[in-house]
Amino acid sequence: MLLQTRRSRIPWTTLVLSAVTALVAAAVSLLPPLGAQAAHAASAAPGSTADSRSESRPVYSYENAIRESVWVDTTIDGDADGRTDRVAVDIVRPREPEAQGRRVPVIMDASPYYSCCGRGNESQTKTYDAAGNPVRFPLFYDNYFVPRGYATVLVDLAGTNRSDGCVDVGGRSDILSAKAVVDWLNGRATGYTTATGGRTVKAGWSNGATGMIGKSYDGTIANGVAASGVKGLKTIVPIGAISSWYDYYFAKGAPLFDSGPDGLSDTVESDGAHARCAAVQKRLVEGAPRNGDWTGLWNDRHYVPDAGKVRASVFAVHGAQDLNVRTKHLGQWWNALADAGVERKIWLSQTGHVDPFDFRREEWVRTLHRWFDHYLLGIDNGIEREPMADVERAPDQWSTDRVWPPSGTRQTTLRPRGGATAGVGVLGTERAEPGSTETFTDDPALSEADWSAAIDTSTPGKAGFTTGPLERDLRLSGSGTVTVTARPSTADAHLSAVLVDLGPATIRDYTAAGEGITTLDRRTCWGSSTAGDSACFKETAADRADVDYTVFSRGWADIGHYADDGKARPLTPGKAYTITLDLAATDHVVPAGHRLGLIVAGTDAGLIEPPSTTPRLTLDLPRTSARLPLVGGAPKAAAAPSRTAATPPLKGVRAPHHRTPLPSVSTHD
Q: 26 burial class (0-12, 13-18, 19+ CB within 10 angstroms)?
């Protein structure tokens, strides 16, 4: 979405330092309400290359900023207590603009985690003084942006912390909790000075321009609010965010966790919500059956079909190895936004479920600053004309693309064929001989790490297929699929498909506790501090691992969902079923000399739950294929050597393990 109006800049280079603040205030007062865009100080942001005419500067006092709480009416009665729910909104905003009769834009993070679990690498929670006034605002947004002329608004979702109502895990209550605040900032909703009182308050200090940001659940809410088409939401920055809650809990019927949305709701609800929200909990249980059927509950939590309603620009950030919120969410949301013509930008790292503040801090703060300046202050800094995508190729090594996926990417079909040894086959463009098969038995104790380490060895738990050594680099960029035709031996069976780069590399260790980062003891500061809210955060470094192979995309399914209509069906043992597995979006280069591998197996231990039986599956190879987003078409590879003897296991990262459904017990949520 192109910016319709850009304001001319006022040159400040001739001002002497001692007069900057006074002259800024006088000049800004001549501008319309978006005057904070012209508020500049002499010092640039860390790592900034912009000059004083193209970025907001920290000229306002953070210590003397206004800190207040408002309760906004959501207009719904989620807890059925006879009155509409109010959500608590904690606000910190610069004092000087209001005194000068000017309004400021808003950076907003709506979250269920502000009291139960905390935000960021250091699990920060909100704190309040004895009178209930907000003191600490988690993360750096307030410390950095308030002095630059923005307000920071942190919203407790319904049913959490100091808000009324109930948590419904991405449903109507969650989304309206945040949307109502955007409406209030634009004068369309009612706010109150207390949780139960009748004295109303308006956001007269807000110019209505709102940007939503957040990681995980918070970023998911940003997606959902944007999909509502609410006016005034100018941009969203979803980080590791969900685009469809069904796809968080299931992969085409295969359960990804051993609990549903009721477990998450129970985790984040306040004590008061626990007491009043039993009916909502019951609906979450009944609406999310563990057989993976699609129900009406999921319709309300599926934001992708409403991408066409999005008015905001989107800056999406995701870890390519995020095994909590998998990149299927990113891929399908990104594609829908592209179809809708939404202006967008993407960062794709090698990490797991990690905030960019903790894997690329200086560049992240600089880029986010410019992004908000452009979309919330109207500054013509050119960020929308810069390359769309930043992709991490190796730890701390990044490349860019003008568009993403890059030009020249097309879906290309690769096919598995049998080899000289059972379960050790070839991947190429030729179709397998009619009647050829491969067979494996689901072993729920084995993971993608076990399969990959033994890809060149005949083992009973998987079928592996590889190209020969590639003659040139092969890049896969975007979302792919694997279509499998298989005969199960039992009435219940799961399938996994993984893509693996076979060759030595140094990668981020995404299966370690830090999911690709190590937290250090030293701190750096990003903005202004007060006694109760520090702008200084622990530094991080890449957690590296040297490996012989890298799994870089995955997909799973319950074969009982072969009809693709959202309903599970019992299988007839011995009958052939065809099902397509959606692979997680990726951007990976398989270097020349490496091999590309496809593994088809049963339960991927640590990532999906096993079926109720232990099936033996026979693959119909001529009717099995992968459609992959290859840049430049099919790979050029040397002939795959025949492998008749067992080979030593390859070295990779440790086996993946179940991440507790949001919030994760790791410190990175």
A: exposed
Say how far apart CA 366 and CA 348 lie, in whole Å: 17
Sign of CA dihedral 412, 458, 607, 568: positive
Which residue among 40, 302, 329, 353 is the active-site one?
A: 353
Backbone φ and ψ for 221, nearest 5 degrees, come out as -65, -40
- Cα–Cα distance, 253 to 291 (Å, whole number): 7
Instruction: Collapse the DSSP code of 669 into the 3-class scheme (helix H, G, I; strand E, B; otherwise coil) and give the result.
Output: coil
d(CA 246, CA 255): 10
Residue-level pLDDT at 643: 62
Structure token pair of residue 524: 């750096």
Q: 305: cis peptide before it, omega within 30°?
A: no
Inter-residue contact 184 to 72 (CB < 8 Å) = yes
Active site residue 322: yes
How would you class 274 by CB atoms within 10 Å of its CB: exposed for 0-12, middle for 13-18, buried for 19 or more? middle
Annotation says 163 is catalytic: no
Biggest CA pair distance of the chain? 83
Alpha helices (H) along 138-200:
141-145, 172-185
Question: Minimal CA–CA distance to 415: which of 499, 482, 498?
Answer: 482
Does the active-site annotation cover 216?
yes
Q: How big is the CA angle at 197 (ends 194 and 201), to the nearest 5 degrees? A: 60
pLDDT surpasses 60 at 554: yes
Q: For 104, how many CA atoms within 13 A lie in the half-sphere containing its CB?
A: 29
Q: Provide the token pair at 558.
A: 């319950």
pTM for this model (two decimals): 0.91
Give pLDDT tens digits for 525-544.
999 999 999 999 999 999 99
- Bridge-based pairing of strands 437-441 and 544-558 is unpaired
Catalytic residue among 216, 349, 528, 553: 216
Residue 95 CA to residue 112 CA, distance in Å, equals 28
Q: Which of 247, 322, 380, 450 is catalytic?
A: 322
At 456, give phi and psi (nearest 5°): -95, 10
Average pLDDT over the chain reads 91
